């Protein structure tokens, strides 16, 4: 999968922003180091200037506006600032006062109008790049200007800065190259993989949804409803129900594996069970066949707990077969279920059915272990006892749909913020 | 969940402590994976400190037993606590694990 244009643009934009931040940081760090460097290295000169400023201030005539003081050096002494001297001129360059400092008074070739930029700036003066320091005398309209030779002052600093900039640019270029040739393709590969897994999960979820009964049978003598809440990861809970002649048949099960193979197996099992049930196959025989079917596919390493039942409307007798599934609840107590092996472990195992006489008003609750093994935030189980108590309290007239929904709500309330840790399948049958 | 594997009198004792649920059963599977490749092992699962087993963990346990048997060995479970015993009874596995 190729990253779409928006993501590519986003990455380039990020790189651009990063580049701008780098450039800005570099620029300000150069300015900052220049100021720090000058303040540290030329502290003596600045002190001289302050003293000089006071002298000038005291000696100046009151009607001179905006005078400038230049720190100048002889052409032959350009590298020795000890020989600098100061000249006071007005803005037209007219000498207002002769040399003040101990050194020589120097000849001015040309005065270039200086642009003030904070306490220090770079400027072209006499054709050379110079570094200029301004010093404001507090309370007086007078600036002192010290001029230093650019290369001389910043020889070391510039060397370091040049290297620094070089490194920054190199790192930036490496990042751009890495992004283009490695990070973006890696991201594309990861996304592609994720998308593949997602689509596989989605098809497994679709299979799971298709495997369970979509349309619940309706009849005058019963009310049936079921709910399935699969986890994000596809599991294998299942329910089926339908009319077998005039009888009501139903199945709730839990295939103990996850992912597409489980969903596929479940789909196969549900089709198999549906067709056999409709053909009127006895439950024990059906369970034997399901058991064999799973055992014949050992590559899946899959097992299945199942509860199957059929209710006869004439006698209200329920025939049921249980393969290691959770205990079905009849009204407020557990149904008597002979322990039988989970389907899919021993091919030769023979299952048997049991029967139970139901009565008008009876209510059955079938569920997967995701219900009793739901955990709250303190990792305590919802448990069988809590489920029994809950079932006992259901109003007699409550429709099966509402019972299923109420149980889902109760479980959600019980879990609080704890995540659902397993599939949940619920089936409620009212006679 | 903690799995301790020791050798005693020619038997491989696998003691499991804590809870075997959907998450920890994956750890358990990793812990016992090396044993699945060995021939003729006599494995004894000591469940005296196992408080809970989920149906997903049972699947791992069954796979483990089937692999051990396929390699000519045997696996049985001892010292099962009531809560776990109930699950074994419900799933009909008591016989295959305990006898």
What does this structure look like?
The complex is a heterodimer of chains A (431) and B (99). Chain A folds into 2 domains: 8-156, no CATH class; 205-430, PPM-type phosphatase domain (Phosphatase 2c, domain 1, 4-Layer Sandwich). In chain A, 42% of the residues lie in helices and 22% in strands. Chain A has helices at residues 5-41, 43-59, 150-211, 259-278, 283-295, 369-372, 383-392, 400-415, and strands spanning 68-72, 85-89, 95-97, 120-125, 128-136, 143-149, 223-229, 237-244, 247-255, 304-311, 317-323, 329-330, 333-334, 354-357, 363-367, 424-430. In chain A, the strands form 3 sheets. In chain A, strands 3-2-1-6-5-4 form a 6-stranded mixed beta sheet. In chain A, strands 7-16-15-12-13 form a 5-stranded antiparallel beta sheet. In chain A, strands 8-9-10-11-14 form a 5-stranded antiparallel beta sheet, with helices on one face. In chain A, a hairpin with a 5-residue loop joins strand 2 and strand 3. Chain B has a single domain (2-98), classed as 2-Layer Sandwich (Transcription Regulator spoIIAA), CATH 3.30.750. With 99 residues, chain B is an alpha/beta fold. In chain B, helix 1 (24-36) runs parallel beside helix 2 (55-70). Classes of the chains: A alpha+beta (431), B alpha/beta (99). Chain A binds chain B through residues 254, 256-257, 301-303, 305, 323-327, 337, 339-342, 345-346, 369, 373, 381, 421-422, and chain B through 21-23, 52, 54-56, 58-59, 62-63, 89-94, 96.
Which structural class do the helices and strands of chain A define?
alpha+beta
For this structure, the quaternary state is heterodimer
Query: From the coordinates shown, what is the CATH architecture of the largest domain in chain A?
Result: 4-Layer Sandwich
Report mean pLDDT of chain B, rounded to a whole number: 87
Number of strands of chain B: 4
Number of helices of chain A: 8
Q: Biggest β-sheet of chain A: count, sense, barrel?
A: 6 strands, mixed
SSE class of chain B: alpha/beta
Full CATH superfamily name of the largest domain in chain A: PPM-type phosphatase domain
Helix content of chain A: 40-55%
């Amino acid at each position: 999968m190729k990253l779409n244009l928006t993501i590519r643009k986003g990455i380039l934009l990020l790189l651009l922003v990063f580049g701008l931040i780098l450039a800005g940081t570099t620029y300000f760090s150069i300015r900052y180091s220049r100021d720090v460097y000058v303040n540290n290295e030329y502290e003596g000169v600045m002190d001289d200037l302050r003293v000089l400023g006071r002298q000038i201030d005291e000696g100046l005539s009151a009607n001179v506006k905006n005078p400038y003081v230049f720190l100048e050096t002889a052409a032959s002494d350009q590298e020795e600032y000890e020989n600098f001297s100061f000249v006071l001129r007005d803005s037209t360059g007219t000498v207002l006062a002769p040399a003040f400092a101990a050194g020589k008074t120097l000849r001015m070739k040309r005065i270039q109008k200086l642009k003030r930029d904070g306490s220090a700036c770079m400027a072209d003066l006499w054709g050379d790049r110079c570094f200029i320091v301004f010093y404001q005398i507090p309370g007086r309209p007078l600036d002192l200007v010290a001029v230093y030779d650019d290369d001389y002052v910043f020889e070391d600093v510039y060397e370091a800065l040049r290297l620094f900039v070089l490194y920054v640019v190199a790192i930036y270029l490496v990042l751009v190259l890495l992004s283009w040739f490695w990070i973006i393709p890696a991201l594309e590969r990861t996304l592609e993989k994720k998308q593949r897994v997602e689509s596989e999960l989605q098809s497994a979820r679709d299979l799971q949804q298709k495997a369970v009964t979509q349309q619940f049978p309706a009849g005058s003598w019963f009310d049936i409803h079921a709910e399935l809440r699969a986890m994000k990861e596809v599991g294998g809970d299942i329910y089926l129900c339908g009319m077998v002649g005039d009888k009501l048949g139903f199945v709730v099960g839990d295939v103990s594996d996850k992912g597409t193979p489980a969903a596929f197996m479940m789909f196969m099992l549900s089709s198999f069970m549906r067709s056999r049930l409709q053909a009127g196959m006895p439950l024990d025989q059906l369970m034997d066949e399901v058991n064999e079917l799973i055992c014949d596919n050992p590559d899946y390493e899959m097992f299945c707990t199942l509860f199957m039942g059929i209710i006869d409307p004439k006698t209200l007798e329920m025939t049921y077969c249980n393969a290691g599934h959770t205990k079905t609840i009849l009204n407020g107590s557990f149904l008597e279920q002979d322990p039988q092996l989970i389907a899919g472990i021993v091919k030769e195992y023979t299952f048997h059915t049991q029967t139970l006489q139901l009565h008008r008003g009876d209510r059955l609750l079938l569920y997967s272990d995701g219900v009793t093994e739901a955990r709250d935030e303190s990792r305590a189980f919802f448990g069988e006892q809590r489920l029994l108590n809950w079932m006992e309290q259901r109003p007699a007239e409550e429709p099966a749909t509402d019972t299923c929904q109420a149980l889902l709500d109760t479980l959600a309330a019980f879990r609080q913020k704890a995540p659902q840790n397993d599939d949940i399948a619920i089936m409620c049958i009212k006679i | 969940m903690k799995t301790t594997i020791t050798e005693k009198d020619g038997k491989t004792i696998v003691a499991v402590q804590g809870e075997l649920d959907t998450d920890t059963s994956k750890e358990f599977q990793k812990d016992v994976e090396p044993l699945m490749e060995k021939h003729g092992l006599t494995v004894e699962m000591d469940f005296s400190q196992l408080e809970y087993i989920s149906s997903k963990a049972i699947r791992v346990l069954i796979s483990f037993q089937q692999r051990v048997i396929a390699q000519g060995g045997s696996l049985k479970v001892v010292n099962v606590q009531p809560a776990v015993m109930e699950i074994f009874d419900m799933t009909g596995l008591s016989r295959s694990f305990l006898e």
